[in-house]
Structures
1.
Amino acid sequence: MSPENTLFVRGATPVLLLADAPVHDALPLLIAPDGAVPLCEGWSIVPRLTLCVVDGPGDQGLVVPALAAPVVGGGDEATPSSGMGDWCADAEQAGGAVVLSLDHIPEELDWSAVLSSGTARGGFIPALV
């Protein structure tokens, strides 16, 4: 997966946004009307400084060259933008990350629009320990 088609978002529950992902159709349609993101059954994530692996059922999965991918803060003052190491620490603390597959990476992060778009796929994916 090209790092240009990804965005790592820091936060208490970190997010990995994917655009034009080869696993888009394999991920479940995201239904989160109240903002509660469901668990992605059968998927796992391995967040590492150099590579981030998202593994799904069967042959589904992808590898992101994480060190080259953009990392931003969560949009609040409490979570500043920083590097991939901090995103990985967030994922370790949260026990995984929310992975969302979209048509394109949005210019501005409007979570209510992303979660109610009707086209986003994904959910919370637990980290392999």
2.
Amino acid sequence: MGWYIKRSTKITQLDCLEDGPAKYHVEYTIRNTMTDEESKTLPHYITGIRSEFPDSHGTSFEKIVFMPPAGGTMSDFEVTGNGADPVADSLNYRLIYTTITQVQPESEVTYSFDETPTASEKPDVTYVKQCPV
């Protein structure tokens, strides 16, 4: 399926603050370029067969993890197309958002959200070395 799946990202800066980080609007699109006809005629090792989804030939099942930048935030998720809404989760004590979506032949799903990098220009991080160098 990877041959037929095209991914693209568009990032638009929303504001240009001189004192802090800018805010960005991100659009992430997954497009399935396989045609309906190809999904019926290509070999099953390409189009996939899932007993729990018998009419899913040519459908790409995508698990997506959205991770905010270190110290930053993500907000205002929107989904266009046949995609599932992201849900909050955690990974290594960090907030992430996950989703599983299906992209049928000749269709696309777009996830859009706003992202703000870390709230300060220089994060307050202290590295302490405990091992001799």
3.
Amino acid sequence: MRIQNVSVVVVSAVCLLATGCSDGVSGKDDGAKPKPTHSVLPQRLDKPAPMPEGELQPSPAADAAFSENLAYELRRKTQSMAGATGKITAECPKDLGSKSGTTATCTTTFEGVKVEWNVSIGGKSSFSNNLVEFTATPRQGILTRDGVARLLYGNYRDSIDYALCNDIPKAVIAPLGVQSKYRCEVVFKGKKPSGFSQPVRATDSGPRYY
């Protein structure tokens, strides 16, 4: 599948084939001083395995309907939001067409956690009449334990020994773009936990820590 990605904050716009389909993250520091938790957080996160390379499987057949191709793209977006591997399913209205101006609600599920998406179908892409533009905006975010670990070890690389958090589940719904109830502290090599932690946030492109 040939895809053109354009991302703006929470709304993502891409192009996808009207029919047919073939077959990490950064943090932000706004300068705010972390708040002390006054106790050592109970959950230890060790360095996770790298995300697997290659296309998400299974992918739609070459003659798949537009709704199946759209569902596949939403599965990809859901994995990006989770920052982790897991069972991902997606469902869009089966009669959903590629006519410009069409709107629909689709649902993706990551390890049993459901996210609803507001989908709007745009016009034909300027690159090809066989590509259709659409925007998909998640109504909720997802946080995952592995996604947060991957973020922290990706940001701090070899400078940290481990990370401590307050019991982040394998996958859980979280508000988008604002601090969640989950917090973490990175413990640098040769140091002990300080009791200072920062909130974790869900975004449509993966967890953030600030």
